[in-house]
Design a protein that fits this description.
Protein name: Transposase
Number of helices: 1
């Protein structure tokens, strides 16, 4: 999980391991969460699947940054 501060919020990018078939390569689902004042402001659902943990976290952070920029 990666986090960063942006416009007074704490943004979180999540990578959730998706192992649908043990014979296939691991995939990571991306999601994001925005927190502020010790509460959840907004959370995405699953955004997409990625090949690496880092790609998924980066996608989650990109989504929450865009959400804050459009709503804040």
């Amino acid at each position: 999980m990666q986090s960063e501060k942006h416009k007074g919020y704490v943004l979180w990018g999540h990578a959730i391991l998706q192992q649908k078939d043990i014979l296939r390569a691991e995939k990571y689902a991306a999601s994001g969460t925005i927190t502020g004042d010790n509460r959840v402001i907004e959370a995405s659902g699953v955004l997409d699947d990625f090949d690496t943990h880092e790609e998924a976290e980066t996608a989650g952070l990109a989504w929450v940054r865009a959400w804050v920029d459009n709503h804040g």
